[in-house]
Amino acid sequence: MKHNMKRIILILLSVLALNQANAQGKKTEKATFGMGCFWCTEAIFQRLKGVTSVRSGYEGGTLTNPTYEEVCTGATGHAEVLEITYNPMVISYDDLLEVFWKSHDPTTLNRQGADSGTQYRSVVFYHTPEQKQLAEKYKAELNKTNAYGKKVVTAIEAAKPFYVAENYHQNYFNKNGSEPYCRLVIQPKIDKLEKIFKAKLKN
User: Fold this and answer.
1) Reported pTM
2) Does 37 participate in catalysis according to the annotation?
3) How confident is the model over 37-59, as a mean pLDDT?
4) Model confidence band, residue 153 (pLDDT cutoffs 50, 70, 90)
5) Is 71 helix (H, G, I), strand (E, B) or coil?
6) Beta strands in the chain (DSSP E)
7) Annotated catalytic residue, options 37, 40, 72, 182
């Protein structure tokens, strides 16, 4: 009997270890959003529990390895985007979409505030059919309820090659928080985030 019990415990432990390995294998997923200047939006997602990394970059254009200067012309077709790596056991894609839609104006075509051009367009680049379905459902609901008083124009497209932006764009707000641009444009977004999503923020 003791021997059998030992065997059962060993089998249970190996099953648990396997499940844990599977969970760890799927520990992170990616989400990619374009919502205007990545300087303004990177710091928002960095503060969320379950987000393990945020990289600023370019997606959705025709040029391979574009530079910031080339993207700024609007001629390459890229959008400034954030590639977010997150743990779905801690924060859901639904949650990320909520933060995305509440942190910028998705009703202005190719514009966020004073920033104008196709590189500033509102776009969700989905990585799975589930992400596509959730984004489309959320957008349809926002338009059905007329949540913004205007139509949501966010594009929902399959993920394209992502090109990481130059080093000086990464972690921008955290490194340059005292600059006037950061204080006037980015800080109010962070303050708003802290009010609305307090429970979802890292300590």
Assistant:
1) 0.82
2) yes
3) 93
4) very high
5) helix
6) 29-35, 51-59, 79-86, 111-112, 115-116, 122-126, 155-158, 162-164
7) 37
